[in-house]
Amino acid sequence: MEILIIFLVVTSILILQNPVGEWINRLNVKRQYKSFLAQETFYHSIISRYYRYYNRLNLEEQRKFLFRTYLFRKAKRFHYIEVSESAEMPILISAAAIQLTFGLEKYSLNYFRDIFVIKDDYHYGFYSRPFQGHVDLSGIYLSWDNFLKGIKGESTNCNVGLHEMGHALAWVNFVTKTEEDKHFKKEFKNFSKVARPIFESMQQGAKNILGDYAGSNYHEFWAVSVEVFFENPIRLRHELPELYKAMTHLLRQDPSVIVNTANKIAA
Ligand SMILES: [Zn+2]
Fold this sequence. Notes:
Layout (H helix, E strand, L loop, with lengths): L1 H16 L2 H31 L1 H4 L3 H17 L1 E5 L6 H14 L12 E5 L14 E4 L2 E5 H9 L7 H16 L6 H22 L14 H14 L1 H7 L1 H11 L3 H4 L9
Parallel strand pairs: 1-2, 2-4
Antiparallel strand pairs: 3-4
Helix pairs in contact: 2-4, 2-5, 4-5, 5-7, 7-9, 8-11, 9-10, 10-11
Bound molecules: zinc ion (ZN).
Zinc ion binds next to helix 7 and helix 9.
């Protein structure tokens, strides 16, 4: 009887301190962490081969990066269209989402269960121009050859993985509101105070490092800003310092600090 009472008291204290859902979630994460450890080396070998961003993190951050990538990858269903599947594909794609959200608390982009990997540029809807990727109600779409060019740094200022994850992040926070990150939502207002006037000037014809496509609408302005923030941080900081600063606050990270001189600064 005494044992039962102690058990009930301890259990109720635990439940009072942590809402039940959160408690179960923690147990679940702990269990997942064990399975992750068995695959950590494999994840490291793949991500370290392509992600300069990852290679510049310290060991503790690298482990956080890998674990988040593992959880993200596990939570998604990947579909391959006209491209042969490889073990590295879902891991490298998941890593793009983790790079973008690394400073945030929420990173699973939970509305999106399905990620479609397409061989190369494709046509979508009534648009005449080919797509490298897009996000809609049915999922996140990425063309594999463009994705690879982006993570290999072969296309200046372009990284379709980061671009589409940027759309997806805005989507879960502002459209479906299924995974609202308190900090991100609050800080986005401050970002917009700086970003809106720049966007509006681009609509009037002003040119800057973000390129014409960013001026097409505010969603694209955001997604392109994400790409350039990570792909060309030093030049973005130089050309649009207020926008750069607002993004470091919004995403809680500063890629210019961890960029070394080997990173090409495109003219
Ligand atoms: Zn876009």
